[in-house]
Design a protein that fits this description.
By secondary structure, this protein is an alpha/beta fold. Helices cover about 65% and strands about 15% of the residues. It is elongated and about 145 Å long.
Length: about 700
Amino acid sequence: MSSARSAETKPVRLAVHNVGGIDHTDVSFSPGVTILTGRNATNRTSLLRALMAALGSEHVSLKGDADEGRVELALGDETYMRTLTRRGSTGSASIRTGGEPYLEGADAELADLFALLLETNEARQAVSRGDDLRELIMRPVDTDALQAEIDRLEGEKRDLDREIDTLDSLEGRLPELEADRTDLDGRIEDQRAALDETETDLAEADAGVEETREEKAELDAKLDELSNARSAVENARLDAESERKSIAALRERKNDLDAELGSDSGSAADADSNIGTDADDGDEGGATTAPAAAIDDIETALAERRDRAQQLETTINELQTIVGFNEDMLEGESASAAVLDALRDGTDDGTDAGSESDGGDRAGALTDQLLADSETVCWTCCSAVERERIEATLDRLRGVRSDLLEERRTIRGEIDDLEGEKREIETQRRQRERKERELRDVEAEIEDRNDRLDDAEAEREESEADVEELEAEVEALQEEEHSELLDLHKRANRLEFELGRLEREREEISTEIESVEADLTEREELEAEREQVEVDLTDLRGRIERIETQAIAEFNDHIETVLELLDYANIERIWLERRETETREGRRTVTKTVFDLHVIRSTDSGTTYEDTVSHLSESEREVTGLVFALAGYLAHDLYESMPFVLLDSLETIDSDRIAALVDYFEEYADHVVVALLPEDAAALDDDHERITEI
């Protein structure tokens, strides 16, 4: 596996000023394993933290007596720089960073979690603390953006489904329309045959009857008027029937919308009550205002939780800096020889705060105490103090930080839940607004079509009156003429009218068939579009699961290999299991994923049993935490952007296992930089580069 950056195969140069316990240093090293070897208080951790700063981490401290610091990282032809400026008094946790580090933003946070694996690294400590392993692995994934895109695609798919369902219903109507057209073709053919026969009879009758031209012209004119009047009646009838059908369909849609809006009102009220809002029971517009009120309450709750999360983030960072500063001081890395001498003497000019007569004695006694490994100088009051007391205080601070991290995880979970509920309510509100708009449009169209129906009925009544009047006139003319001839004219007139009506009806059906067929040509395109949306939805829904599954697989594969490599006597297997569980979120039941860590041990007799993580030895927990971090490094493809893995505080693991573990990590990163004690470093391959002077 190779990194995406060509520069990463070239030597690295790191220049550090006033970081941790370092005044100034300039070191270079090549790709592969680089060992920072030395005793405590030799600035190994400070150098690692300086490298972290250049790589983009915020977990770095200034030298105790400096207000400004600087780190430069030369990687191939590129140079990255980070500046540190203290804001406030010495020892304050407020450090402002600047410059252009190797990584920034989310990439830097990802590297902090899974590549910069110092003792206080959150992923490394997750196993020991019993943290939510799934939350750590998924933290870099923007699940909110994924969910928003899923919601958008689901809405698009619903729209496509409706369009395709409409086309399916149209396709089902097509055979009926074609059958109607075929039937009309037959009726038209019969009507034409009857008309042809009648016209033949009429021609024969005309030849044998003596009529005045004026009488015949008058009768023909009246018959034409009668035909036109009957056509007007039929057209008005068809228009009225069409409007009635449209009104019936619109009223059915209106009833559906009323029912849906009534159902939405109940859902909105449920959502409002679940958030705990005090809705006004007398407000008839509550269905509309309840989602808005619920969103206001959610935004208020979100603002409170985000404020709390920000406070926690600030406090956690301050605690981290305080812990890091004190760890460096405890190891002697954050104080120069001059500062330590000043602390031992009690004042910067070498005079004790007490009487001059006994100052030398007390200074000598204090110096003797400082020589003992169990004591050090308190850098706040300059007194001798047991190292264990300071370490105990640091343990308490770490405990407080762990509690705050747990609270932050809880708050983040609540924020995720509230944002999900807000999205759901906003979606419901948008759907309701769309339905209300459609309802208004439907009601307006019903009113418009009722007006048109009234007009058609009025026109029909008027035309029917005209028909009655014309029929009376024709009847009067018939009495004056030969009845047989007039009957033929009347019959021909009616046949022509019926033929015209059938042809118009056939034309309407043909037009409808053509429209349906044109719409059906779009179905293939719509189905292809829906298929792509389903593919995209499957990909988005599976993206989180794929990352989870990959992280599980990476961890299980690597922990199995590492355990076999390190040969822990009674550990048979350590493995992660991905499990889904249902939980309640307000009025919803949602499925969430958890990671369960299993430990299988074996007895001397070969019997295996499941144990708890808390029963692992410190060495075993350290190794498990490091492998978990490596799984995150690989699952998020971090090796593509971060070629460094940093390690320190491995003393709980014996030296041979440290050597095997470091060599294992080397397979997955271009640069593995590890701080080791000399006796642990001796177990590693002599070919590995070593830095002994910082």
